Amino acid sequence: CDTNLLEASAGIETVEVKYKLRRTLKGHTGKIYSMAWCSDSERVLSASQDGKLIIWDARDGEKLGVALLKSNWVMTSAFSPSGTFVASGGLDNICSIWDVDKLKIDDSDEPSQPVKELNGHAGFLSSCRFVDDKTILTSSGDTTIALWDIERGQKIGEFLGHNGDVTSIGLLKSKNAFVSCSVDSTVKVWDLRERYCKTTMSGHEGDVNNLTVFPNEEAVATAGDDLT
Fold first, then answer.
1. What digits encode the pLDDT tens for the residues 67-89?
2. d(Cα 53, Cα 86) in Å, to the nearest integer?
3. What are phi and psi of 173, to 5 degrees?
4. Could you tell me how many helices (H) and strands (E) the chain has, helices first?
5. What's 104's DSSP letter?
6. Burial annotation 72-90 (CB, 10 A radius, 16+ → b, else e)
7. pTM: predicted TM-score of the whole model, two decimal places
8. In angstroms, how far is CA 190 from the centroid of its own chain?
9. Is the pLDDT of residue 108 over 70?
């Protein structure tokens, strides 16, 4: 039967969790639009509309690397699984890949040089997610999702089916799949190998703006303009 989250959790004992501020990372001079943890749980990446990507040591708050972007209008960022590379993109329609070891530690007025620029979308980049250190997924306002070979800088797959801006993507690595959401009010699950949409889920009454995948990859949560 239909129920809501409050009703479903009514019989669960409440566990009080106390949080405290551990560290404040200061260094950006503009709006921070995206963040990503590294798999080592020690480094965190921030992307700001001051035109900078910064890699931080989350343990002591020190800067480990700074990339000065060609475009300030960054919207998304990601660490590769090994932590060797980071990626960013935004209103420039390009996904830029950076070698972490080649980033400068101090601020510079000279734009940093990415190891690769993936140029193929006709709209803004809303999300980028590394599949592995050699391939990455990007979603765009051009209604498409692209799979890229990073080393060759080439698009090796394209996923078509949304009827509006694709706003976010999340990997389902154990299933060789990923999930996407869009302003067309739908959430789609895609087969990463065969390049087709496995299922389309509806429920929102407006734009679907963001999603997050549950750690065991058996569920996904979405957020939309309909306040749900």
1. 999 899 999 999 999 999 999 99
2. 9
3. -60, -40
4. 1, 18
5. B
6. bebbbbbbbeebebbbbbb
7. 0.89
8. 17
9. no
Distance from C-alpha of 133 to C-alpha of 9, rounded to nearest angstrom: 39
Helices (H), the chain: 5-8
The tokens of 201 are what?
């889920």
CA distance 204 to 201: 9
Strand partners, 170: 179
Residues 45, 64: contact at Cβ < 8 Å? no
77 touches 53 (CB < 8 A): yes
Q: Strand, coil or helix: what is 87?
A: strand
Q: Which two tokens stand for residue 24?
A: 């404040």
Rounded CA-CA distance 74/91 in Å is 7
Three-state secondary-structure class, residue 191? strand
What is the spatial distance between Cα 136 and Cα 112, in angstroms, rounded to a whole number?
A: 21
What is the Cα gyration radius of the chain? 18
Q: In terms of Cα–Cα distance, which of 192, 189, 166 is closest to 89?
A: 166
- Average pLDDT value for residue range 137-157: 97
- The pLDDT assigned to 2 comes to 58
Confidence of residue 20 (pLDDT cuts 50, 70, 90): confident
